[in-house]
Write a structure and sequence with these properties.
The complex is a heterotrimer of chains A (205), B (276) and C (103). Chain A is mainly alpha-helical and 205 residues long. In chain A, 46% of the residues lie in helices and 1% in strands. Chain A has nine helices and one strand. In chain A, helix 5 packs across helix 9 and helix 8 packs across helix 9. Chain A starts with a helix and ends in an 8-residue tail after the last helix. In chain B, helix 10 packs across helix 11. Chain B starts with 7 loop residues before the first helix and ends with a strand. Chain B is globular, with a radius of gyration of 19 Å. Chain B is mainly alpha-helical and 276 residues long. Helix content of chain C is 0%, strand content 50%. Chain C starts with 5 loop residues before the first strand and ends with a strand. The chains are: A mainly alpha (205), B mainly alpha (276), C mainly beta (103). Chains in contact: A-B, B-C. Chains A and B meet through helix 2, strand 1, helix 3 and helix 6 of A and helix 7, strand 4, helix 10, strand 8 and helix 11 of B. Strand 1 of chain A pairs antiparallel with strand 8 of chain B, so a sheet runs across the interface.
């Protein structure tokens, strides 16, 4: 599966380069990339391979996060195809565990201990439960999410796949691909789905 | 003789902690909270512990030091002539012919320390930022240099093609998404009015946001009581971006500082600041 | 040797506002380092302010005061040119005195 994605992007990158009109800032972007490649050193778990762009990042970086629709569609489909759903088909976990996970912003920095579990980072960017006022606004408010959208099988699948890989829905979304990069496991994502959709969750009170 | 009470400034320090603890209690008026801290900051401005580091920096600037036993005052040119400090900070980053590079203030002082005084770069770069009770000499020196540009306008010279090139490169670095979370600088600092938790995120591409980003550095951070430079801020941003660590005083950092500072051109620099 | 203080003494009417910044770690003795070892207490425990050689303020401080503390006093009946000397002694016997002139 991963191979297929890499292949798709390998094809897509040169295609993009050819399709785009020569941009004035292309030279500066090349300089920026070269500068970044020489100016970092590994520390803790943060190794130098993190500086390389993967296919999705490459496309988004080269198009100002606004890729042509047909390319976006193709790569979104690739990302979606790689979403792993729970074996038992059950997408809702425990909203209480989800709330705890949503609060934590730990993980993946050079100061953090390598390995799992890491935090969901949710409140960093989203309003979620009305009880938490220290929420960020980089992402949209998710207050009353389940109340507004309903707790249908369809919505559950949408929320699960969105958390698993936000880029499957919107290629250059600012949200990390938590499942895809194995930051969050299946059960953790289920708990977050419950936080947003469970009628008992404070989000929907 | 009479006993005294610790006056307002210290009480204010305590109340900042209380203020933070109350955050979760009820609906928070974010604008009001910001205004409160601004008031506190204004109160603290003429009692900012940053001044202690300026004093320390002055001592270091004037002392004959290093293997070459020369002072920075008699050897270091920050762009306005050897030993000239007034207004030098707000004109940096700038191009320095002797080094054939665009340098920000901290990098320039490091350059003087290695090239003129004979210190080893690797020794300075080993622990370049303050933590706990440790404050590197370079931090005090930069604070001293910055203090000599109080109430002067930022004026990074974008007409110099070498500065322009670094500026444009910095702009692209701010755009570059990579790492496990796909973050770039601009993920957080590329649009107006965003927050991470309670922390406001200035848009470094706008004049207003860039002003917020460059103002108050170097800054005394009350959490932990440490003096930190703008180089440190860049370092810690990359940590939160989940990137590897940027090398100290590298081109990448200069480029970002050039981008931000030039975007704040024309704004009056208020000197070393105080931070939460 | 301890680092210098920064002292300001500004005349406002017949009062001088004195503000003193002190450079000191002010360790409480309660904190632990990364290895779980207690960091020994190290704080300023007495402060005196003298105007033209005469002590006008003396007081005790403890570990509850923040690192690099700021102190403020108002001195009544001050005039320009008065010499203000501030001294501190910490629990390890370190001391420091700095001076300024009311302006």
């Amino acid at each position: 599966m991963t191979k297929k994605i890499i292949l798709a992007t390998l094809v897509a990158v040169p295609f993009m380069a050819a399709a785009l009109p020569a941009q004035a800032d292309g030279a500066y972007r090349a300089k920026a990339v070269a500068m970044i490649q020489k100016d970092f050193k590994p520390r803790g778990q943060a190794s130098l391979d993190r500086l390389a762009e993967d296919g999705v990042q490459a496309i988004c970086n080269r198009t100002g996060n606004n890729p042509p629709a047909e390319i976006a569609k193709m790569l979104e489909a690739d990302q979606m195809a790689a979403v792993v759903y729970p074996a038992d088909g059950q997408l809702m976990g425990d909203w209480k565990k989800g709330e705890k996970l949503a609060q934590s912003g730990k993980g993946f920095t050079w100061k953090d201990k390598p390995g799992l579990p890491v935090g969901g980072n949710c409140y960093n960017c989203h309003q979620i439960s009305p009880k938490e006022q220290a929420y960020g606004t980089v992402g949209p408010s998710l207050l009353h999410f389940g109340k507004l959208r309903g707790n249908t099988a369809e919505t559950q699948k949408y929320v699960y796949s969105k958390i698993y890989n936000a880029k499957a829905h919107n290629l250059c979304s600012e949200m990390p691909r938590f499942g895809r990069i194995e930051a969050l496991g299946t059960n953790q994502i289920k708990d977050l789905v419950a936080l947003l959709l469970d009628p008992e969750s404070p989000v929907n009170k | 003789m009479r006993k005294f009470r610790i006056m307002s400034a210290l009480c204010a320090l305590t109340s900042a902690g209380v203020f933070a603890a109350h955050v979760q209690a009820q609906e928070v008026d974010h604008a009001k909270a910001d205004a409160e801290f601004a008031k506190f900051r204004a109160e603290m401005e003429d009692s900012n512990p940053a001044e202690l580091f300026e004093l320390k920096g002055e001592e270091l600037w004037k002392a004959k030091r290093g293997p070459n036993n020369v002072s920075l005052a008699e050897s270091c040119d920050l762009g306005l002539g050897v030993g000239k400090l007034d207004g030098a900070y707000v004109l940096m980053p700038r191009y320095f012919k002797d080094a054939d590079a665009v340098m920000d203030a901290e990098r320039r002082v490091v350059w003087c320390m290695t090239e003129k005084q004979g210190f080893k770069f690797d020794d300075i770069a080993k622990k370049p930022f303050a933590s706990g009770n440790y404050t590197p000499e370079i931090t005090s020196l930069v604070t001293y240099v910055a203090g000599h540009s109080r109430n002067k306008q930022f004026a990074v010279n974008l007409k110099d093609p070498k500065v322009r090139e670094i500026y444009e490169t910095g702009k692209e670095i701010a755009n570059y998404r990579a790492g496990p979370y796909d973050f770039s600088c601009n993920t957080c600092h590329g649009s107006d009015g965003k927050r991470i938790r309670m922390q406001n995120l200035p848009n470094i591409g706008s004049k207003e946001g860039a002003t917020k980003s460059v103002m108050g550095w170097p800054g005394y951070r009350m959490t932990g009581g440490v003096m930190l430079t703008h180089q440190w801020r860049m370092n810690d941003c990359f940590r939160q971006q989940r990137f590897p660590e940027p090398k100290y005083a590298s081109d990448t950092i200069t480029a970002l500082l050039t981008y931000m500072t030039a975007n704040a051109n024309g704004v009056m620099y208020k000197g070393p600041g105080i931070k939460r | 040797m301890a680092d210098p203080m920064k002292i300001r003494a500004q005349l406002k009417g017949d009062e001088a506002v004195i503000r003193v910044l002190m450079s000191h770690p002010m360790e409480t003795g309660q904190r632990k380092d990364g290895d779980g070892k207690t960091i020994p207490a190290h704080f300023i425990q007495s402060i005196t302010v003298a105007v033209n050689g005469k002590t006008v303020v003396s007081g005790q401080t403890g570990g509850s005061v923040s690192r690099n503390p700021v102190f403020g006093f108002k001195l009544k009946g001050a005039k320009a040119g008065d010499k203000v000397a501030v001294s501190w002694i910490d629990n390890k016997g370190d001391k420091r005195t700095d001076e300024t002139t009311v302006a």
